[in-house]
Structures are given as structure tokens and as C-alpha cells.
Amino acid sequence: MIKLNYKNTDEMVIGKENGLNIQQEFANYKDTIAQIITDLNKRKDKPEQWLQWMNLGYNEETIWYVKEFASMVKGKFENILVLGIGGSALGGIAVTEALLKPYWNLLTPEQRNGNPRIFFLDNIDPDSITGLLSILDLKKTLVNVITKSGSTAETMSQFMIVKDKLEKELGADYRKNIVATTDKKTGILRQISEQEGYKTFVVPDDVGGRFSVFSAVGLLPFALVGLDIDEIINGIKDMDLALKNTDINENIAAQNALIHYLMDTKKGKNLSVMMPYSSRLKYVSDWYVQLWAESLGKNKDKNGNDVHIGPTPIKALGATDQHSQIQLYNEGPNDKVINFIRVAEFDKTLEIPHIFEYTGIGYLGGKTINQLINAEADSTRVALSDYNRPTITITLDRVDGYNVAQLLYMLEVQTAIAGELYNINTFNQPGVEQAKNYTYALMGRAGYEESAMALQEKMATV
Ligand code: PA5
Question: Of 3.30.1300.30, 3.40.50.10490, 3.20.20.140, 3.40.50.1110, which CATH number belongs to 52-227?
Fold first, then answer.
């Protein structure tokens, strides 16, 4: 199981002004936390609670269909192209970057065990889309278009470009190169898929985009590139079981949620940095940023009061960002909680050769890069505590499907518990929808004419 070390948030280590009396706070919040966990587990099966993500590890049917489809198309495609944005892309990127061999797309088919390369288009930069489409042989590409709403302008415009190109290159046969992941019944992509006869997978009801990584949104691309789905599912299930424990002393998601909440509300530290010391986990930070920001940044609480709350998430990478952000974290405003992710055992051990022995870098010879990266994580943590800065260390035994699934699921539960502590709706995103609607209006979507006129007026002044 992954481990959480919160020692460096305690007032014994970083002083009363910046630290918490952790044992006291855990005792103070024991009942509240137990109530939150019990309540989340009670509500999770009810419709419109947006908690169906807590059941994804047990969705045998989807897991079976995903594996079945992946085995049917195995060997037929050289590339997987995923079209999606936000919650429809970030989990897929985070997990494939973590679990596939590094530089996957540059490996030979043999080095990839015959599995396809994978590309994500999660933006609408005309240069990068054109660039990618100019190097991909679409005849050998399976396109997985993912959108829960079925209408997101970024994803659907990419899809229209790719579908048009596919049809021109493949003729009537192009449909077998498309698989759509979208809502079961509603949305334009569902309608198009039925008309056109695409293979489809479902984004289940009551699973928001940022909580959808373990639905077909993530599982399908993972299976298509040969990742071990069972290992991932076992990680989710074991973590889910551990996080059903209502005792805060035993529940790491509750501990981290409470510490972040108290650091924000009592100590004025409302920035949450996610800093893995592992390049393979780099995109977990991007995924976490969306999860934390969209879930907790809200203007109203559940009682309708104006609150305008939300800790701001920040992504960083160890050791790289020691040479970019740590100066600020050590000496700038003491307004952050820094989450380190540490890997106990890397897949490879890389020794530094005994050369330049009689120079100032001779001491590195004979050590390993593994020792160096973890020494850097340790020294940064200690330096931050010298400056009385709170840090938390999450340790993974290794970067594999089991541990990465645990990490992501733990962070999802942590976010849900934090939302309850803030007393806000964790699962809506009216602020995102507003910008989406403005885009529809600006681009001339039917039904948005009034908005378009109001927008034109605003744009003249803003
Ligand atoms: O978490 C969310 O709900 C959002 O980030 C969505 O995932 C994102 O806006 C994409 O939406 P959709 O999947 O409907 O295209």
C-alpha cells in the first residue's frame, strides 16, 4: 500500500505558527471524518450524487468489454489517437506516461511487444494538430474520441477534422478506425455514433470527467496499449477497502484532506503543490491540478452562502523544479503545503561511473542516480522544514499499475473528503460550463444567439 508521511506538517517540527497539532486535530475531527466517510459510502449508489466513480473498480462488465475490444483489435493498428480534453484526457495521459516504458512512441514494435503507439490531442493548437496528423498514418490509427457531454467544442472540432481525413483516406471503411466514449444516451457524439455505426463505450452516469479515469475513459486506452487492467483494478479495490475505514488514524485520504483543509483555513496556506520525484509521474500532477481545482474552487457553499473558496493546486517535478521553484517555496510567502511523491524502488538502477575521480564531481562516481534522486527529495524536505514549511510525503513502493491506481484513487477520495470539509459541491463545475457556453455562442451554435449578442457587447468593453 502507498504510504503518507505528514510529520512535517506538525507544530513539533515546523513550529506553532505554521504547523498543526496533528494528534489533537485528528481527535477533534474524528467524528466529523467518520461521518463524512460513512455518508460518502452510503450516498455512492444513489443517483445524482456523482459518486459512481467510487464503484468503478467493481464494474466487471465494462472491464470485460474493454479487454474484449482490445483483444479484438490487437495487431490491427500501429497508433491509438485519443481526442479529448480535461477529465477526458488528463487521467489517460497521467497513467500511460507512468506505466508505459519511457519514450514509448519512439520504441520499435518489438520493444512495445507489438502494442501500438499512443497520442493524445488535448488542445486545439492548429500547428500541433496539423503536425501530428502529418506524421500519423490514419489508415493504421484507431481514433478514440472521448467526451462525456458529446459536444465539447475542442474535442468535437478535432474529431470533425480527423473523421473527414479518415473518410477521405479510407473510403467507406473508415468507421472501423473510430471508437467513441461518451454518455450512454445523450449528447451529439452519441447521436452521431448511432447514425454512423461507430463502436462505442460509455462514460457512466454520475461520474464527472475528472473522476472518470477508471471508467472506459481511461481503461480503454490503457487496454489498447497493452497495460495490465487487472493490476490497475486490484490497486483501486485495495485502496477503496482501506479508505472505507472511518478512523482518521487509519485513513490516509482523510488525513491528507484534513491537513490541507486546516492548513488553508487555520494557517492561511491555500496553495497545494504536487511534486513527484519521478519523471514517469510528472503528469499525475496535471491530473491532480484539475481534480483539486475544479472540485474545490467554488463560489457558494452547500447552504448557498458566498464563500469563494478553494486551495490552488500547483504542479512541480522533482528534482527538476528544485532549480526553478524551490527558492520561492523556501523563502517566499509561507502559504503552501508541498506534497512530495517518492518512489522507493525504480525499475532500473543506474550507476554513475567512477570517472573524473580527482575532481570536485568525483564523489558521485559509484553512487546511483536512484540514490541521487531520493537524496534530493530528502534534502529538499529537510530544507523546507528548516524554513518551517509544511510538507507531506507520499511513498509508492514502485511505479506500477497497482501503486499508480492506488495513488489516483486515494487522491480522488481525498478530494471528495476535502469537499465535504469545505461544505461545497465537489462534483459540479459551473465555472467551466460558463466559458464553454460563451465559446458556443462565439462560434455560432444554435440556441446561443442571445448569449452571443450579450458577449459581443461585453467584449467591446472587457
Ligand atoms: O472534469 C470535467 O468535468 C471537465 O474537465 C471535463 O472533463 C471537460 O470539460 C471535458 O468535457 P467532456 O468530457 O464533456 O468533453
Answer: 3.40.50.10490
* Domains of the chain by residue range: 3-42+233-422, 52-227
Known catalytic residue at 436: yes
Give the separation between CA 76 and CA 439, rounded to whole angstroms: 37
d(CA 27, CA 70): 48
Question: Which residue, among 238, 246, 253, 241, has the nearest Cα to 37 in the 3D structure?
Answer: 246
CATH code for residues 3-42+233-422: 3.40.50.10490
Q: Do domains 3-42+233-422 and 52-227 have the same CATH topology?
A: yes
Spatial contact of 170 and 147, defined as CB atoms under 8 Å apart: no
Cβ-Cβ contacts under 8 Å for 10 (sequence gap 6 or more): 19, 20, 21, 22
Which residues, 6+ apart, have CB-to-CB distance to 277 below 8 Å?
318, 319, 340, 341, 342, 343, 373, 374, 376, 377
Pocket test for ligand 1, best of 53, 85, 155, 188 (most atoms within 8 A of CB): 85
For the cut 90, the answer to whether the pLDDT of residue 289 exceeds it is yes
Percentage of residues in the chain having pLDDT higher than 90: 92
Residue 447, pLDDT above cutoff 90: no
Taking the C-alpha atoms of residue 214 and residue 233, their distance in angstroms, rounded to an integer, is 8
Q: Can you tell me the distance from the alpha carbon of 91 to that of 211, in angstroms, rounded to the nearest whole number?
A: 9
pLDDT tens by residue, 86-127: 999 999 999 999 999 999 999 999 999 999 999 999 999 999
Question: Would you call 294 a catalytic residue per the annotation?
Answer: yes
Angstrom distances, CA of residue 458 to CA of 404, 430, 436, 440, 450 = 45, 20, 16, 16, 13
Q: What angle do CA 409, 414, 416 make, to 5 degrees?
A: 95
Q: How far is the CA of 5 from the centre of ligand 1 (A)?
A: 32
Q: Taking CB atoms and a 6 Å cutoff, what residues make up the pocket around ligand 1? A: 85-88, 147-149, 152, 155, 208-210, 294, 429, 432
Question: 187: CA distance to ligand 1 center in Å?
Answer: 13
Q: Indicate the residue type of 46.
A: K
- Distances 230 to 27, 46, 61, 216, 393 between C-alpha atoms, Å: 37, 26, 13, 14, 27
Query: What are 69-80's pLDDT values in tens digits?
Result: 999 999 999 999
Residue owning grid cell 503507439? 117
25, 97, 154, 294: the catalytic one is 294
For residue 203, how far is its CA from the centre of ligand 1 (angstroms)? 11
Q: What is the pTM of this model?
A: 0.96
29 touches 247 (CB < 8 A) = no
